[in-house]
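Could someone model 2-phosphoglycolic acid with this protein?
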Amino acid sequence: MRTPLIAGNWKCHTRLESARALARGLRETLDGLEGVEKVVCPPFVYLAAVWEALRGSSIRLGSQDVHWQDDVAATGEVGPRMLAELAEYAIIGHSERRHQFGETDEMVNRKVKAALATGLKPIMCVGEMLQERQAGLTEEVLVRQARGGLAGVEMPDGFIIAYEPVWAIGTGTPATGEDAAIAIAVIRREVASMFGQAKAETLRILYGGSVMPENIAEFVSKEGIDGALVGGASLKVDAFSVIVEMAARLKAGAS
Ligand code: PGA
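Reply:
Sure, complex below.
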């Protein structure tokens, strides 16, 4: 049985007070909810404040990125040991990092290894761009990103990958549940070919890209989709809480 997971990616949003208020609001609505892992990923500067606001609750903390080294001259970066003092998860290789900041599969791979070595749980993102989808290259891109990101990795059970088609992120146009399930099956198959079927069965694969209360059911009702990585809708207590509650209910009903 794979534990479902819903993660909120706050991206470059909130201020100190609104981050605190969002964390407190989510604590009120979601703390007692079981059967789903709940994760919020605030900007680096607010990790400590959100950690404080969530301390002792069941809501976990994640970062939006992680450098592959600590204690080095790397201006502007935040190392895995620093993050592991506050966070439990780290988003790695988000499409905005890949496409706005030039992150490569090789960098993603170094980050995944460094995160695992310090006990952080990576949420490794993969996904094709619109031109790639239109050119029929979706599978090829997913295979390349999965293989590149996971090369030489010692994969723990329950490892997390987020499938986020770039064209669905922040556009209000999500993939269909069917398309997401097909892409996710490709990723699971590829992981099986690298690490074996038993390990691939423990792998948790999330869907991300315009997930909202109105469409979360379409994704989590699919057997192979283990949760969601949520951007815009994670900035509102009500919307994110509904998404988490529906995921918990539907996954409990399916098991
Ligand atoms: P979105 O973002 O839900 O706003 O589309 C998802 C993501 O980028 O993780």
